[in-house]
Amino acid sequence: MSYETLISVETLSALSNVKILDCRAVLGDPELGRQRYAEGHIPGAGYLSLDHDLAAAPGAGGRHPLPEPEQLARRLRELGINNDDQVVVYDDAGGAIAARAWWCLRWLGHAAVALLDGGMKAWQAELSTEVPKVTAGNFSVRPSLTRAINVTELSRTLQSRTLIDARSEARFAGREEPIDPVAGHIPGAVCMPFQLNLDPSGHFRSAAELRERFAALAPDADTVCYCGSGVTAAHNILAMKVAGYDEPVLYPGSWSEWIVSPQREIATDDQA
Hints:
With 272 residues, the protein is α/β, with parallel strands linked by helices.
């Protein structure tokens, strides 16, 4: 049996053959996640960096454009990941970062990848400071299990798509923008903050609750998810998959790419 969306701490603890990846990161401080990993991580876990492994260099494609597939595959091989491994990813941010890793492995064609529900907070067992010694894996790029859309195609089909923004309501409305130089959202988008996929304990809500959360949008395979830079949007994709909806499309460039061109329209709460 493989796990392809979420996995509980109890289930993970019972597995004997699993590869674990620590994906902790802090936006704006690329090395802090690695530092936290060094201070203590789930035993046996390797470290996967948001800025260095799960994204290419920032630029016209946004703050966290997708990495080159083979470059990420090479890093996964270095971490000992094989094509037939069950992979579990986690962070300390409610899955905000680990969901990007979950999506990226699916993007490279790896189905058996699950996010640790509750993350570090749910892991009550002992931590380790030991970096595991691994044999290089045979991970390879296979046909993708998920989909992405580029800014040209999104601009062309914008009017016919449901567009879901994972950022906070304040950023979506343009009342504040602590990261990007322009505030607002892509015209026609609906604000669905990713944090509301979680219950007060930091675990994902039940499939029924998540299905009800997104039901009014009637999401389908043409629905597009975005956020500030294509990271937390994956959280909504995972939540909709847990809910039983068709897996939506990720716009990796997200708001940070959309605003690069002044010719692209933006909306604020006064215009929405």
